[in-house]
Amino acid sequence: MQKNVFAEKGFIHVMGPSPAIVPGEKDAWDGRILECCDIFKDEDTYYWYYHARGDRELYPKGYRVGVATAPTPLGPWTRYEGNPILDYGPAESWDEDSVDCVCVMREGAYDLRPETDVYYIWYSAEGPTGRHIGLATASSPLGPWKKYEGNPVVEDFGYLGSVVKLNRRFYMYTQYPVEVTDQGPFCVATADAPEGPWTKYDGIRFSPPATGGPGTTVAIRRQVYATTTACFTGSTGAPRP
Fold first, then answer.
1. What is the C-alpha to C-alpha distance for residues 149 and 135, in angstroms, rounded to an integer?
2. Radius of gyration over alpha carbons of the chain, in Å?
3. For the stretch 63-74, what's the b/e string if a residue is b when 16 or more beta carbons lie within 10 angstroms of its beta carbon?
4. In this structure, are residues 114 and 107 in contact, taking their beta carbons and an 8 Å threshold?
5. CA–CA dist 116, 102 (Å, integer)
6. How much is the average pLDDT of 164-187?
7. Cα 92 from Cα 115, distance rounded (Å)
8. Res 38 pLDDT > 90
9. Can you tell me whether residue 118 is helix, strand or coil?
10. Taking Cα atoms as reference points, which of 94, 97, 101, 96 lies closest to residue 65?
């Protein structure tokens, strides 16, 4: 039987300081809504990536991506002065309206190409042709991030949740399709390289629970710990009468 490290050790709820990161000033690019994307440890620094948006009148488009750093997972977290690190594309481009839901990976981790030192950031984006997945690279977790010329790497694939590499293969987990409530089931795509080509998996999806009302999944994060693969999800159900 496969060992379940989570059943043996469980999770520990650490109190505060909370909230760890809050929206910026009223007129800031991240002054209205701020949502978590990914947390990434590189050397002795933790990087917390988030997407955010400001006041609608000042910033009429959707999300952009920022990052904060800290010496420990509990903070204190300091916003990067160069935020936002990932911005909209030019007018009429596939990612002109919103960039969000990022996942970061460094070469050398997960048995990637050790001869180089490149950081990958996959991201969801929205534009005139819908919502697709893109890729950018950098030599530092802070950027500057250069968008891949072959973007989007996966078309029509909703909100990105996580990308991992296992046994020399990349796995991309997304929430798709994005339904009216901004929620939906989870899907998977696979590739042999960060830029693809990516193949959408036609098998069983991660679906909402059948009990407790019409629950709809809203977030996904997949990680590999030794021989255990963990998939963290969030969901909501129908309001009580």
1. 9
2. 18
3. bbbbbbbbeeee
4. yes
5. 22
6. 83
7. 37
8. yes
9. coil
10. 101
How far apart, in whole angstroms, are the C-alpha atoms of residue 176 and residue 187? 6
Per the prediction, the chain carries an average pLDDT of 83
User: Using CA atoms, how far apart are residues 162 and 104, in angstroms rounded to an integer?
Assistant: 9
Separation between Cα atoms, residue 37 and residue 77, nearest integer Å: 15
User: Is the pLDDT score of 147 beyond 90?
Assistant: yes
pTM summary value: 0.84
All residues at 6 or more sequence positions from 11 whose CB lies less than 8 Å from its CB, including other chains: none
Q: What CATH superfamily classification does 21-206 receive? A: Glycosyl hydrolase domain; family 43 (2.115.10.20)
Identify the CA nearest to 157 among candidates 94, 209, 96, 105.
Answer: 94
76 token code pair: 């204190």
Rounded Cα–Cα distance for residues 151 and 111 (Å): 24
Where helices occur in 135-234 by DSSP H, the ranges are none
Domain ranges, ordered by start, for the chain: 21-206
Tokens of 134: 């893109």
- What mean pLDDT do residues 211-224 have? 44
φ/ψ region of 10 (left if φ > 0, alpha if ψ in -120 to 50, else beta) reads left
Using H for helix, E for strand and C for coil, what is the string for 189-241?
Answer: EEECCCCCCCEECCCCCECCCCCCCCCEEEEEEEEEECCEEEEEEEEECCCCC
